[in-house]
Amino acid sequence: MLASPGTTVDSHCPYCALQCGMSLTRPRADVAGAPEVQPRDFPTNRGGLCQKGWTSAAVLGASDRLVTPLVRAESGELGPVSWDVALDLVASRLAALAAEHGPGSVAVFGGGGLTNEKAYALGKFTRTVLRTPNIDYNGRFCMASAAAGMNRSFGVDRGLPFPLSDVGGAQAVLLLGSNLAETMPPAVQHLAGARAAGGLVVVDPRRSATARLTGDPSTGSGQRPASAQPAEGVHLAPVPGTDLAVLLGLLHVVLAEGLADREYLEERTTGFDDVARSVAAWWPERVESVSGVAAGELRRVARLLAAAAPVHGGGGVYVLTGRGVEQSTQGTATVTASINLALALGLPGRIGSGYGAITGQGNGQGGREHGQKADQLPGYRKIDDPAAREHVAAVWGVDPETLPGPGVPAVQLLRSLGTPGGPRALLVHGSNLVVSAPNASSVIERLKSLDLLVVCDFVPSETALLADVVLPVTQWAEEEGTMTSLEGRVIRRRAVVAPPGEARSELWILAELARRLGAPEPLAFPTDPAVVFDELARASAGGPADYSGLSHARLDADEASGGPGLFWPVPAAPSGAADPGASAQHPGTPRMFLDRFATPDGRARMVAVDHVGPSDDVRPGAPIYLVTGRVLQHYQSGAQTHRVAELERLVAEPYVELHPVLGSRIGVPDGGRVRLTSARGRVEATARWTDAVRPDTVFMPFHWSGTGSVNQVTTDATDPISGMPEFKVCAVDLTPVPDAPEVRPAETTPGLDQLGQRHGARRTKELST
């Protein structure tokens, strides 16, 4: 229910998976404008917000906000139409394609920012109405490797199987591939205990804002200057793509020096002997020759972590990984090596210690649990499991035989668009593929080759500008629902203002399309988020991600009583055991694995892995490593944050960080224009000299489109287990751009006046109404 004018409701930030608690106050009836945002005391942010959170309400009133459906006319321009016209067109084209080419001719691409309810409904719609296996989502670009590694080792994937606040009490934290100080600033406070104890270890080829928290002045070579003072922690700066070798070296030292928790390994794991044999080959000096991290530093870090481990009477250790090491063709292996190290030290399943993966997108956790992923059904069930199919089909009121089998991961799905036998239509929800997908130029060509591209969005993103039909949808402060934070904490999102114009929720859109496509009567698509959640809860019952004991009403009651949300799994109380308000309700599971892991025998699986290196390594013609990442002021493809004037002023254009030695060698001055060329394409941006990056490496953020879109040069090679693309490292050549004209920010954020302009030459389609 929409808040009354002048009232305040509790909700959460629309950006990352930290899901910072905030309060939203609806303007009085006589006052125009966006709701007022204030931080509130919530366990993840403890009253803090980053710049994106403080300015989040500004996007609600973006000047180019989509407020009516748009359809591309014969002239090639997008123009406004009614909802009936737009939806009738989409339904008729989808039905015709399926009739002529089969259900597999239609594909769906979802997003990690959708609420649990919308993610669930999208998966259900895809498999019951469209009956296509072709669905995946941009979470494949986020948590796929961590999910694969955790499922293999622990039997279940929950990014952090403990509350984030637990990390604050640890004596040591090993953080690999995550720049929390810029991507999730309020989370930095949870590193305070490790920093105070001198136990924060950051592994990153850049001296990022997070690496600087260690106080470690070590150089890119990994060697500490002789004059260095004792630091608050350690920064290891390996050669890009060699984090796995560093982890293998750390475990080698732990085992060689007798620092492992042998009793824990004996009682709670399997596979240790194979892992021990495999890491015997990774002595510190060999790791140094591969990674550039000094052997002495490896030994120092291994001893530091062991001293803080429970087996040695320490104050606790957490091993945390992020996209920097997971977005790799050996991402699952790197996660597995991180887990092996944590298991050797006896950390997972102990209060105050553990392994976890830091989810990036707002609902990256919940978004993959309930049906957007190519091989999953609600509750994190496998779609090829007959029992899972039978259970979910019964909830949906369909024959399990009618459900399609597994689809293919995102990169493979995108490559297949418009190819012979591949999908000819694509529905996009909550993703800006033109900017965020790897090898983006190839993705753009595949999108252009489609017979039908339908995009649901709230602003004219670069992907929406390619679409044949654009459907305007609601934003976070305009809708009810739930999200699941990086800890597996299920929380409520609340509406405080009405959506503008004719914007509608995806729940309504999917219900209308289902009706037009002739969904049978038992197959219901409710539009009330609370009702959708109740169905989601039933569908998830008994699965690894069991929400069956939850409802909007219970979450509201928990928050009203001062509760911080509930952590899945939350199974329903046995039938007849208690009334809904009784204490017999399951309290949720803040900490997993305390007694057993989610494997058949209750033991964690240690799996031997080996370092291979990046798929696109440096070579003549491409002698420099490119790494990519985020900046504090922008988020993902920038579709939201580029529309916030305050954030855009702070970082208005893309840039390339390079070491002064490299800049001098190639003749690119600080502030000059530099061109990056890979085997896939080239980009241009402003050069920024800094000694915070290795001399053999450049860094470029990925929040821009056009000539500064770094994903035009990244590789779409994928991890063979997770399907995760190798965003984070590739080989490039650098050259100066002589007499380059200035690139204005407006060129990367098209407005409504440009909606009629097709990006590139695409054949005219007869979609006129």
TrEMBL record:
InterPro entries: Asp_de-COase-like_dom_sf, MoPterin_dinucl-bd_dom, Mopterin_OxRdtase, Mopterin_OxRdtase_4Fe-4S_dom, Prok_molybdopt-oxidoreductase. Residues 6-64 form the 4Fe-4S Mo/W bis-MGD-type domain. Keywords: 4Fe-4S, Iron, Iron-sulfur, Metal-binding. Residues 216-226 have a biased composition (Polar residues). The keyword Ribosomal protein does not apply. PROSITE patterns: 4FE4S_MOW_BIS_MGD. The keyword Ion transport does not apply. It comes from Promicromonospora vindobonensis. Transmembrane segments: none annotated. CDD domains: MopB_CT_Fdh-Nap-like (cd00508). Residues 210-235, 738-769 are annotated as: Disordered. SMART domains: Molybdop_Fe4S4. This is Molybdopterin oxidoreductase family protein.
